[in-house]
Amino acid sequence: MAKEIVVMSVLLFVLAATTKADTQSGYGPRCSSLCNSSAPTHIHFYFHDKITGPSPSAVQVVSPPNKTSPTSFGTVYVMDDPLTEGPDPRSKPVGRAQGMYLSSDQVRIGFLQAMNIVLTAGLYNGSVITVLGSNHISDSIREMPVVGGTSAFRFARGYAQARTYFLDSNGLDAIVEYNVYVFH
Questions:
Q1: By its UniProt entry, which Pfam families does this protein fall under (predicted)?
Q2: pLDDT digit string (tens) for 121-142?
Q3: Which of 114, 110, 152, 108 lies closest to 130, judged by CA?
Q4: Letter string b/e over residues 11-36, b meaning 16 or more CB atoms within 10 A of that residue's CB
Q5: Which are the contacts of 23, defined by CB distance < 8 A and separation ≥ 6?
Q6: What distance in Å separates the CA atoms of residue 126 and residue 95, rounded to the nearest whole number?
Q7: Which of 16, 106, 168, 173 has its CA 20 to 30 A from that of 50?
């Protein structure tokens, strides 16, 4: 019993020393001073998804295998959507939403959305927040997890809430309000 306690103590000491050395050498986990903050960073913007017209920001790259599917199950879109400060497409640009969304629900219209929120203005210019999750567009508020990021958002975690601000009569072009809460 005493021998096991000594061995366990030595292992814990070695683990603690290795973790400290790795962090100091630059090879272990590093975190900005905001990483231990109790309050997340809040980022607000409007997402402009335009499928129609001569310059779409989202394009269909895979058609649904079953053309009669009420949810277009299997359809894949690639997007490079502008993000703006306000709902007007001419308001100040703050970034781009780059990624894809695919129809992944056979019962109701819902997408698996994978996107990088590439910020191009303000304090976080050049940083990226990565979001991956389910987006059922008929829900008034959709919540998707933040799964990572780069630059100021390394080790990011949090969530994004999406709320449809405008949907055209054909249900194709949309303006979506986003509130993103990120710990980093």
A1: Dirigent
A2: 999 999 999 999 999 999 999 9
A3: 114
A4: eeeeeeeeeeeeeeeeeeeeeeeeee
A5: 29, 30
A6: 9
A7: 106
